Amino acid sequence: MNDGQKILGEMNDRSREVFRRVVEGYLDSGEPVGSRTLTRTLSEKVSAATIRNVMQDLEFLGLLDSPHVSAGRIPTQTGLRMFVDGLLEVGDLGDDDRQKLDATLTSNTDDVSNALDRVSAALSGVTRGASLVLTPKHEAPIKHIEFVSLGHDRALVVLVFGDGHVENRLFSPPPGQTPSSMREAANFLNALIEGRTLSDLQREMKTEIDARRQEIDSLAREMVDSGIAVWTGEGHHHERLIVRGRSNLLGAEADEAELDRIRSLFDDLERKRDIAEFLELTEAGDGVRIFIGSENKLFSLSGSSLVVSPYMNSDRKIIGAVGVIGPTRLNYGRIVPIVDYTAQLVGKLISDRS
């Protein structure tokens, strides 16, 4: 039992209902909820003064906050977390939302990339937030690898996969590379590569280089390191991030400070900073996870929330993630089943077309 669940369990029925009504009112309207409003909705008839006392107690516990001079309260990040963990009622996926998401996968002629673009756009449309789809690396066994020099500071790595898929990627090779050292590097890798994926290759590469140091000169060794880093090294993640619905977070009601925070968030996304963290966030457990404000460093500055779910291939291996970004006052009860269903759709899409 975490601290939030413990606090929730120690509340009496009146405090719990006041807390729930304040959070639900805030999530619905985005406005502070006052005691007079609550007197009309609580199941028991109590005075506004009694409700104010309860709200003051909840504020003392760090669950509610007073944003202005008015008597209204809004939930804090801690309060939202406790609500999501202990009181959130998740609804069923609506038929209209389901149909809009299903409609994105009606064509079997598109490649996976185009289909995922449509899924992301539909997810943004039905949630009125910004959608994220992290697409997987191509993890089929590799048949052949080649390095091609394009100049003193540019090179191309060509990967031919066992399933016929071919990928090319530009990168900057270490200084001093020659056509001869590039051939040596490719020969070294091709001797190891048969039947292995890039992830497999990365795990074995350092061991092999150390064991066969005399068989490959320093330039070729650097080339091997650099060429693989293009695909799996930090800062060069091959996963593709699809982002849709930026305008949904830049509504007319946002103030200038909020606009600046949201622009900063999208600048980070476009630079793909910490994008690999999405998978790390989701791998801790199956199903949808909710990150509120500073709980995820990528969204801490913008004060946004992330509702994210992993999706899996036919081998039940997590290979990507689907998510929705929005303000902390998201309609979590509606968004959670939408994200969950979309993750299942994407997993089926990837499995069917692999």
From TrEMBL:
GO terms for molecular function: DNA binding. InterPro entries: GAF-like_dom_sf, HrcA, HrcA_C, WH-like_DNA-bd_sf, WH_DNA-bd_sf, WHTH_transcript_rep_HrcA_IDD. The keyword Transcription applies. Residues 115-336 form the Heat-inducible transcription repressor HrcA C-terminal domain. GO terms for biological process: negative regulation of DNA-templated transcription. Keywords: Repressor, Stress response, Transcription, Transcription regulation. It comes from the Bacteria. Belongs to the HrcA family. Negative regulator of class I heat shock genes (grpE-dnaK-dnaJ and groELS operons). Prevents heat-shock induction of these operons. This is Heat-inducible transcription repressor HrcA. It comes from Primorskyibacter flagellatus.
